[in-house]
């Protein structure tokens, strides 16, 4: 087997030897074991599933939340003569059909999907008869509730792997602390002996932290860039408008700088990314939307214009510098004024307790114990003023605590466009199949081009089940007899038990959300602690990820400038709220009933943190929305609680 690994490594990937950690991970997988790989950004995680995919039968299914990463890896694999495909929302009907045909015919060694793809009943049905030799989960830290980027969909991936008979599983991440790695191994049932962690430390990266004020920051950034030899760089900012402003300032100073953020049109984002990848000297000023899947070896600098929200995010972002092994600068401009915006993102995710009470009362009124129901998460989010991702998290908690059992999500709305006449389509069949399709076509609501089909009603009228109808539509689509379109996803749940009191369960869930909120605030504090640390910062960052180093690195701020040059971030300025403005707040509360007993909602409004209820009430366009964004959320929340208690 070792000879086969070496052969494929050289023939398909052009490498003479594996990097540290890769050999162990690949050997664990080829021996039939599940494994975990914790390598730093740029450490070669992807090869740990790409190479085994060529040696194992069936398909290697790669679960990744990053469409850009999927696309870049697939393009690189295609250039090496390796067939790899992806399933995502950007595919055309013909592209989707081709991927599914290759998958069913066992001609596809590598398939990339997003975790949300498993909510698609068409996709799940298609996996029933597919041999999945390896189920690889990228960004596996997302499975940990106490990791820095928890995603509820990840909690169900281990169950999906078992459901579809995956023979082995691989969890990959660059940012797992020791407790998070333990959580990954526990949930994916990976032996500790098969968890491989390589060193975080990279000697070519200079970690430089500087405390600045808002007035100083632009000039400090410009001076730093101009003092560096020309080379590609990424400048990370928090807000989209900041990306535009900083890029414009740098361009006006004669530097090749462009902005990148999620608010740009997809074609412009692609244009900026391709420009950056091709140029030897290019500067992208970006939100964290940029960088995932960007595999550019000669990035000479990564700047943090705004504070990163955690050490995990910071390490992932600076890990994009210097992948060619050459010296690279990682500079953070630490400013206390950034804290309000970052904290607002955190506090804005925490629903108020009454919203959770309302959610529970609505859910458990949908049936008795043992009964099933289905819901639209979008509707639940809007009705209960809980952000969509937080709503998914709360529902996941209810599943984990044994109140609900999630079923297969389904699309409520199916439409199809015939590519031939119904008589031509039916002429392809005989007997019972022809009779079934004829009756199915009679169930449709005909439009000018698209025919709508109520699947539940059709199944009932035909005495059939959804699965047969879906399989029939998919088969007809693959034969290019019609084109299928789906919409209106709904999530199935069964009530396993009901709470004795919604109020007490809501209190438990609310405290859980507060605990998560505090964990995120603590992560932000860890960034501040790194900036003011009176010790080697590189070693402290390595220790955060479980690597202990005995000697100072010699190239971080503390090592280069000494303890006397380390300064703490200045406290935030917290100006008083004028009486006139506070009177306007009182007047608004008197007029808007949704604010009468909800201090957190009022604090969100004043700090400029949107929510479904504020948007629906059009309060996000009110003149007071965001008026106090320069003041810490906790201070505003204390004031709103006092105000409402006295009214």
Could you characterize what this model shows?
The chain is 45% helix and 15% strand. The strands form three sheets. Strands 3-4-2-5-6-1-7 form a seven-stranded parallel β-sheet, sandwiched between helices. Strands 8-13-12-9-11-10 form a six-stranded parallel β-sheet, with helices on both faces. The chain starts with a helix and ends with a helix. 38% of the residues are buried.
Residues in helix, %: 40-55%
Count of extended strands: 19
Distance between the termini: 76 Å
Unreliable stretches, pLDDT < 50, 5 or more residues? none
What is the fold's blueprint, element by element?
Layout: H1 2-13, H2 22-30, E1 35-38, H3 47-55, E2 59-63, H4 67-79, E3 84-87, H5 93-104, E4 110-113, H6 121-126, E5 132-137, H7 152-155, H8 157-163, E6 169-173, H9 178-188, E7 195-197, E8 205-211, H10 214-227, E9 232-236, H11 240-252, E10 257-260, H12 266-278, E11 283-286, E12 299-304, H13 311-318, E13 328-334, H14 339-348, H15 353-364, E14 372-375, H16 377-384, H17 388-400, E15 404-406, E16 410-418, H18 422-426, H19 431-441, E17 445-446, E18 451-453, H20 455-462, H21 466-478, E19 482-495, H22 502-531, H23 537-544, H24 557-561, H25 579-591, H26 599-607, H27 612-616, H28 633-645
Parallel strand pairs: 1-6, 1-7, 2-4, 2-5, 3-4, 5-6, 8-13, 9-11, 9-12, 10-11, 12-13
Antiparallel strand pairs: 14-19, 15-19, 16-18, 16-19, 17-18
């Amino acid at each position: 087997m070792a000879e086969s690994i070496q052969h494929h490594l050289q023939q398909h990937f052009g490498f003479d030897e594996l990097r540290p950690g890769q050999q162990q991970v690949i050997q664990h997988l080829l021996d039939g074991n599940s494994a975990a790989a914790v390598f730093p950004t740029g450490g070669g995680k992807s090869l740990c599933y790409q190479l085994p995919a060529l040696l194992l039968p069936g398909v290697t299914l790669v679960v990744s939340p990053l469409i850009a990463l999927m696309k870049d890896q697939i393009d690189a694999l295609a250039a090496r003569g390796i067939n790899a495909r992806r399933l995502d929302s950007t595919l055309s009907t013909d592209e989707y059909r081709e991927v599914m045909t290759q998958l069913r015919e066992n001609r596809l060694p590598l398939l990339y999907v997003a975790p949300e793809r498993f909510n698609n009943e068409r996709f799940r049905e298609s996996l029933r008869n597919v041999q999945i030799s390896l189920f690889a989960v990228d960004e596996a830290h997302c499975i940990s509730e106490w990791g820095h980027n928890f995603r509820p969909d990840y909690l169900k991936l281990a169950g999906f792997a078992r459901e579809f008979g995956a023979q082995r599983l691989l969890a990959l991440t660059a940012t797992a602390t020791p407790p998070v790695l333990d959580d990954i191994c526990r949930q994916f049932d990976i032996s500790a002996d098969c968890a491989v962690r390589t060193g975080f430390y990279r000697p070519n990266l200079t970690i430089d932290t500087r405390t600045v004020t808002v007035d100083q920051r632009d000039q400090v950034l410009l001076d730093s860039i101009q003092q560096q030899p020309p080379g590609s760089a990424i400048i990370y900012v928090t807000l989209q408008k900041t990306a535009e402003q900083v890029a414009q300032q740098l361009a006006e100073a004669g530097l090749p700088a462009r902005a990148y953020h999620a608010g740009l049109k997809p074609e412009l984002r692609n244009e900026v990314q391709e420009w950056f990848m091709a140029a030897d000297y290019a500067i992208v000023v970006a939100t964290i939307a940029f960088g995932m899947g960007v595999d550019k070896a000669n990035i000479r600098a990564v700047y943090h214009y705004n504070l990163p929200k955690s050490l995990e995010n910071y390490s992932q972002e600076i890990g994009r510098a210097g992948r060619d092994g050459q010296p690279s600068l990682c500079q953070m401009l630490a400013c206390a004024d950034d804290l309000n915006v970052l904290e607002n993102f955190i506090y804005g995710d925490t629903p108020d307790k009454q919203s959770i009470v309302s959610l529970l009362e609505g859910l458990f009124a949908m049936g008795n114990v043992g009964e099933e129901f289905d819901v639209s998460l979008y509707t639940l989010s809007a009705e209960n003023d809980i952000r969509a991702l937080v709503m998914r998290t709360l529902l996941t908690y209810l599943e984990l605590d044994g109140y609900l059992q999630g079923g297969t999500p389904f699309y409520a709305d199916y439409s199809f466009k015939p590519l031939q006449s119904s008589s031509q389509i039916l002429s392809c069949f005989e007997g019972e199949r022809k009779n079934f399709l004829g009756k199915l076509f009679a169930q449709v609501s005909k439009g000018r081009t698209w025919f709508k089909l109520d699947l539940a009603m059709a199944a009932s009228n035909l005495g059939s089940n959804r699965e047969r109808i879906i399989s029939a539509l998919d088969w007809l689509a693959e034969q290019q007899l019609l084109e299928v379109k789906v919409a209106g996803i709904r999530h199935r749940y069964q009530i396993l038990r009901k709470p004795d009191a919604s109020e007490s369960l809501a209190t438990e869930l609310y405290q859980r959300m507060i605990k998560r909120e505090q964990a995120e605030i603590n992560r932000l504090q860890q960034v501040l602690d790194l900036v003011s640390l009176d010790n080697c910062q590189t070693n402290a960052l390595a220790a955060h990820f479980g690597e202990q180093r005995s000697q100072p690195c010699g190239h971080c701020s503390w090592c280069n400038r000494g303890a006397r040059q380390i300064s703490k971030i200045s406290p935030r300025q917290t100006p008083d709220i004028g009486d006139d403005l506070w009177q306007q707040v009182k007047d608004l509360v008197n007029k808007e009933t949704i604010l009468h007993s909800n201090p957190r909602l009022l604090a969100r409004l004043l700090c400029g943190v949107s929510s479904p209820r504020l948007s629906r009430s059009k309060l996000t366009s009110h003149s007071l929305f965001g008026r106090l964004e320069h003041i810490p959320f906790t201070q505003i929340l204390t004031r709103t609680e006092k105000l409402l208690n006295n009214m």
